[in-house]
Amino acid sequence: MARPPKPWYRKRRKAWCVTIDGTRHFLAKSTEDALTRFHQLMAEPQKRIVRSDSLAVVIDLFLDWCQKHRAPDTYEWYRYRLERFVRTYPDLRTHELRPFHVQQWLDSMTELSRGSHRNYCRSIKSAVRWAKRQGYIEVNPIADLEEPRPGKHETVLSQTELEGTAPQASGCDFSRTSWPGLNADSDMIVNHSVLY
User: Which H helix or E strand runs over 194?
Assistant: First the structure.
């Protein structure tokens, strides 16, 4: 890890200097003026030369930003999904990215549920949208890409499980006749879907 920039006195020039990102800056001859100039330089936004045509670089910048400005779990959520996209398209340039790239990537992951496909799609769309907002790219090439619909999750509860929820739901009637969809033969609720 690089050391943080720190002003130093150069005897030969009788002036204070600092090296920031490999560039030497002459600050001033007096200590007070040098510290003022040093703080001004450090307050300036960091300039990064980025090949904005490399999608992998833009995704790395997004992940760096997530690591600094989002919760660790959120960073890991994005990192896991976006690294899979970069492994699929390592040489893709931002101007070459099209919705069909994302769709083919999603279709290649047949083991995933519809809800997972939606999350993978959201991850790449978020990264590209962020890159446009930050000025790394001029146009979001996948802005119009439709996200897959979320899947349905079926929940089946036995009569025992239903009765176990009674303390949390005081005043509710858990008799057989009060639950639509209760199968009288199996004591199970069927055809109950929850969207997530």
Answer: strand 193-195
